[in-house]
Amino acid sequence: MTRRIELPGGNPLDLCGPALIMAVVNCTADSFYAPSRAMLEDAVEKALRAEEEGASIIDFGGESSRPGSLYVSEEEELERVIPVVNAFRKRSSLPVSVDTRKAAVARAALDAGADIINDISALCDDPLMPPLCAGRGAAVVLMHKKGVPLTMQEAPLYGDVVAEVGTYLKAAAERAIAAGIPPGKIIVDPGIGFGKRLQDNLELIRRLPCLAEICGNDYPVLVGLSRKNFIGEITGRDVPDRLWGTLAANAAAVMGGAAIIRLHDVPEHLDMVKTLFALRTG
């Protein structure tokens, strides 16, 4: 697996130390966790606070992909995200990821200084996305999902969820490489909560090393599970009270080899990844 990801902005991701923290800033009004929502100047300030707290990457998104969410138009997503990326980039050199499945949004974000395109469709929704990312030297996050956000939680079913998700991600990475994206710029994400039942999410976290092996152990694994429904199913707690369950699940993911964790609560997770790294390395 690559231990260093070169980015267009010249500030690489070093994967040799503790797992990296990707802080979520949702430039939307309907993301499932209200404190993650912020628009325009508030979004920039939220991102700067996350950087101060120790985030290694800021992930801006202008389209909610929570279960039951609807598609957002290209124009609206551009209006939500691009001014924020522009303003943040003027005040920070921290790596920026943009959560989008639209090539026009990705292009404008890269023009504004983004480094990573985080595509929940694994570059499948927009045929212009793979050549764009290849030509611009962007790193990409390829995520697995079953179905679309509006209906993905309506009775998803797997035989062996780890085998199916791992095979999907391996094929997605191969398609990206065929489009000209270097292997060293590819990150894979099993898509916790995206068309998965409770037992599927637990199995993916438990067997993360197996999933990475199916992918050839060639790509860093990103896990995004912060405050999601499966934690509520386990703990019986609503979204605002799921921090401790999130920490436990992310700790398991990091111990299973996750190189990047995408989340809402930076300081608590920074302490966790530093401690786990010390325990593993002595």
Task: Describe the protein.
This protein is an alpha/beta fold and 282 residues long. The protein contains ten helices and ten strands. An eight-stranded parallel β-sheet has the order 8-7-6-5-4-3-10-9. A two-stranded antiparallel sheet has the order 1-2. Helix 5 (161-178) packs across helix 7 (208-214). The longest helix is centred in the first third of the chain and has 18 residues, at 74-91. The mean pLDDT is 93.
> What is the tally of beta strands?
10
Mean pLDDT: 93
The best one-word shape is globular
* Unreliable residue runs: none
Sheet-strand content, in percent, reads 5-15%
SS class: alpha/beta
Biggest sheet statistics: 8 strands, parallel
Q: What helical percentage do the residues reach?
A: 40-55%
Query: What series of H and E elements makes up the topology?
Result: EEEHEHEHEHEHEHHEHHEH
Cα distance, first to last residue? Answer: 22 Å
Radius of gyration: 17 Å
Question: Top keywords for this entry?
Answer:
single chain, 282 residues, alpha/beta, eight-stranded parallel β-sheet, 43% helix, 14% strand, globular
